[in-house]
Write a structure and sequence with these properties.
Strand content: 15-25%
Order of helices and strands: HHHEEHEEHEEEEEEE
Helix content: 25-40%
Shape: globular
Structural class: alpha+beta
CATH superfamily of the largest domain: Umud Fragment, subunit A
Mean pLDDT: 79
Oligomer: single chain
Number of domains: 2
CATH architecture of the largest domain: Ribbon
Radius of gyration: 21 Å
Length: about 220
């Protein structure tokens, strides 16, 4: 069972710390675990070198994996806690609380009086501060009829369950991530695109990673 560790005697090499951080960022940004080859490519090191560092991180209880299961590498709670401490100490991960000034409202119909207010608009002010929130950049046009376009960013709330019709990020066959509408069928699930050029995906091996709660677009 994974529990909090005593980090007082734990030492990481710079490369091990970098690999731990890279694995965490990969998982957070793509909603699935990286392979050894992908981590090696991210860090521009050989696969064997990445494997050696991963083995050491697993020995220290900072990473875990399920033998025989694709993309199962992930940080343990101890690994997440240590990475958080490293980031707090070194300032290598910086999160800004600044937002964009929210100066009022604008009409898309009849003009209205312009009244300025002094608020700011940020993701945290709109969606709240939660470790369950993450964002993904959209690639592909399978959801174009839902007005979700290439280059948009979907804001998601991490959850393993979804209701029929919800827009979800799902992992199919333990490997491929996709953005679709979720529907339960009798013996499987249906992941429904919003583009008639794409066929629905029917799967008996589907894992929900999150439900979409917002959309960002740069014009």
């Amino acid at each position: 069972m994974d529990t909090s560790a005593d980090f007082s005697d734990m030492r990481l090499t710079p490369r091990q710390a970098e690999l731990l951080r890279t694995a965490a960022c990969f998982q957070a940004s793509r909603c699935y675990s990286p392979t050894i080859s992908e981590l090696a490519d991210e860090l521009s090191i050989s696969r064997s070198t990445a494997f050696e560092h991963l083995a050491e991180l697993q020995r220290k209880g900072l990473l875990q994996t399920s033998p025989g299961k694709a993309r199962s590498l992930k940080l343990t709670s101890s690994g997440q806690e240590l990475l958080s401490r490293l980031d707090d100490a070194g300032g290598s991960v910086e999160r800004s609380s600044d937002g964009i000034p929210l100066v009022g409202v604008v009409a898309a119909g009849q003009p209205i009086e312009a009244v300025e207010n002094g608020q700011t608009l940020s993701l945290s002010s709109y969606f709240g501060i939660s470790d369950d929130l993450f964002a993904l950049e959209v690639r592909g046009d399978s959801m174009i009829d839902d007005d979700i376009r290439v280059g948009d960013y979907v804001i998601c709330r991490r959850t393993p369950v979804a209701a029929d019709g919800q827009l979800v990020v799902a992992i199919v066959d333990d490997h491929n991530a996709t953005l679709k509408r979720f529907y339960k069928e009798r013996s499987c699930v249906r992941l429904q695109p919003a583009n008639e050029q794409y066929e629905p995906i029917y799967s008996g091996n589907c894992r929900i990673e999150g439900v979409v709660v917002g959309l960002m677009r740069r014009l």
